[in-house]
Amino acid sequence: MKNIIFLILLGPLLFSQNFQTKDSLKVLAKSNFKSMEVFENKNGKLTPTRNYSYDKNKNEITIKNVSDKNKEWIKTVVQLDDTYRIIQENKIIEGMMISEKENKLVKKQVSKIKQYTYVYNSIQIESYNNEGHLYKKEFNLVDDKDRLIYSTLLLNASSDIVVAQTERYNWIDNNSYDYEKLTFNAPKSRVEGVYKLNPYGDRHSFKGSMTINDKTELLDFSLEEKIKKFDSKGNLMKIYILDNGKENILEKRKIVY
């Protein structure tokens, strides 16, 4: 049971990607694509999940949900600057919410906005709820190779600003780094160890430890090796694994230029 609890808490850490400023969107926009359809493997069948479209005049990418699942997410509109960096994300979601006028639950669409600010080697991300109130801030520092070296997450709790977590990345080389994450809200935890990356820059393995409430668990994981294929413009086209020498496609993309 203890191992299961550790895995649940560590899961988002291991299965997320190392920090990127969503460069895939930058590559897409720079390639002047018109639209993209994303298919994911659902029970052995490639099923459409997301549609992308690019408005070159507005320098804006719209990502729409076309999946049967996760219907609360409708779409996300991403605004880019002149260098194709993200400056704002507007996420539209739908759910049951209390109507102040009718004092009852009604189905409603609302927006959640993230705003990005770039100053020298720092990136600040501010998150606003559907009422326009700032509830979260993230500060990131990157090195001269645009690799994350430090991150702090702040939460707005009533009138107080609370430091929720910090992360440190000490790069050993281009393919590995020492990692430390401190979480200050319950349950308080500390993760430290070494991440190794695959040729695509994604996390491949982790060796270290996780401490929760003064109890420490040693960790040694390797993630499933996924192969990526790109087109001549540098855009991701396919993700698959090899199963007995045969391609098992996990995700496929159709791009119109």
Q: Your description of this structure?
A:
By secondary structure, the chain is mainly β. The protein has a domain at 1-19 and 147-223. It contains 2 helices and 17 strands. It has helices at residues 2-15, 23-30, and strands spanning 35-42, 45-55, 60-65, 73-80, 86-99, 104-119, 122-128, 134-142, 148-157, 160-173, 176-183, 189-197, 203-212, 215-222, 227-230, 236-243, 246-256. It has a 17-stranded antiparallel beta sheet, with helices on one face. A hairpin with a 4-residue loop joins strand 2 (45-55) and strand 3 (60-65). The termini are far apart. Mean pLDDT is 88; it is low at 4-8 and 14-21.
What is the gist of this entry?
With 257 residues, the chain is mainly beta.
Poorly predicted runs of 5 or more residues? 4-8, 14-21
In which range does the helix fraction lie? under 10%
Q: How would you spell out the order of helices and strands?
A: HHEEEEEEEEEEEEEEEEE
**Class from helix and strand fractions:** mainly beta
Highlighted features:
257 residues; mainly beta; 17-stranded antiparallel sheet; globular
Provide the fold topology:
Elements: H1 2-15, H2 23-30, E1 35-42, E2 45-55, E3 60-65, E4 73-80, E5 86-99, E6 104-119, E7 122-128, E8 134-142, E9 148-157, E10 160-173, E11 176-183, E12 189-197, E13 203-212, E14 215-222, E15 227-230, E16 236-243, E17 246-256
Antiparallel strand pairs: 1-2, 1-17, 2-3, 3-4, 4-5, 5-6, 6-7, 7-8, 8-9, 9-10, 10-11, 11-12, 12-13, 13-14, 15-16, 16-17
